[in-house]
Predict the structure.
Amino acid sequence: MEPTLRINAPAVVGEIIDGEAVIIDLASGHYFSTQGSGAEIWSGVEAGLGRSGIAGTLAGRYECDRTELEHAVDAFVAELLERRLIVEDARHEGTAPAPVRPSLPNGHARTVFVAPVLNAYSDMEDLLMLDPIHDVDEAGWPKPKEPEASAL
């Protein structure tokens, strides 16, 4: 069985706004965006699906060759893993929720599948790194780090 996928929290946060997934890596200050099938893959990760669950969900929504779709999902998930935006969760191996077949409105056909693209940005890295959330200890925000003895 395959492991499920999950967001690499608390270092990574993301939200889908008007069909676009906006993802921020708080550790590096980089942010990312993806639309269409990429945002749907991100939704699948949020739901705790594995690769095959995500591919099954997309296959119910898009018109395309299943092998092509699976390769595109695998490549996109690999990029998310490489950038450490998501992680595989072996603790939930084999317990992934069943794929959700999105219902299409009556009379609407499945749309043509377009491979997902992850857009990466680093132009706000300095600004995001100024956020005081980086100056916390293991207890997390809002508890600030204690000053080091040498700094006193």
